[in-house]
Structures are given as C-alpha cells and as structure tokens.
Amino acid sequence: MGTRITKATIASAVKDSAAGKAYDRSDMETKGLILRVGPRGVRWSLRVTLLDKPTRWDLGLATLHDPDIYRAIAREARELCRQGIDPTDHINAGPGSRSIR
Q1: Do 36 and 42 meet the contact criterion of CB atoms below 8 Å apart?
Q2: 10-residue block means of pLDDT along the chain (101 residues)?
Q3: pTM of the full predicted structure?
Q4: Fewer CB within 10 A of the end CB, N or C, for the chain?
C-alpha cells in the first residue's frame, strides 16, 4: 500500500536522494503512479499494462509541478491504456496536455 504523496513527501525524497538513498513510493490516490528516488534525483513514473504488456513511463522531475498535475497525467494515460491506446504522445506532451483523445 502506498501513501498520499505531497510536496512535503517530495521535499523529503529530494533530501534522501542527495544522501544517496534509493527507493520507490507508490501514490495511494493513483494506481501505478510511483515516486522514484535515487542518487540521480527524484522522478515520477507510471506503471501500467498496455495490450497485456507491463509498461513503465517516466513522467518527469518530481520538483517541477504539483503532485496533482502528475496524478492527472497518470489517470489520463491509464484511461488511454484501458482503451488500448499507447499514451506515449500524451505523456511526452507534458502537463500542458489535458485531454484524452
């Protein structure tokens, strides 16, 4: 089970990253959304199944936008996957992309 990832969670993760720690933390609000902490930084990642194949997408640096922005991107990408549509273009468009095809 994950926790609700907040700005405070991210701030703590940035400190952990600087200390060389590495771990993943799942967001309990959005299935498949993960905060990945490592020595090279803190990033958002999305794990989802697309056409029966487990897939992971990097969503970007955790410090760039509010966690709710990444939750929205992840939910939209999951919906595209549910429809059998590869969400790579949607994800690559970044936070400005708000609509599902």
Answers
A1: yes
A2: 85 97 96 96 95 92 93 94 93 62 34
A3: 0.86
A4: N
User: What is the spatial distance between Cα 51 and Cα 23, in angstroms, rounded to a whole number?
Assistant: 28
Beta bridge partner(s), residue 45: 34, 58
Residues 57, 55, 3, 101, Cα dihedral to 10°: 70
The C-alpha torsion from 66 through 68 and 69 to 72, rounded to 10°, is 170
Identify whether the C-beta of residue 95 lies closer than 8 Å to the C-beta of residue 73: yes
- The backbone torsions φ and ψ at residue 84, rounded to the nearest 5 degrees and listed phi first, read 80, 20
- 3-class SS of residue 20: coil
Nearest to 59 by CA among 68, 16, 50: 68
- Residue 22 in contact with residue 13, Cβ under 8 Å? no
DSSP secondary structure, 36-72, as one string: EEETTEEEEEEEEEETTEEEEEEEEETTSS-HHHHHH
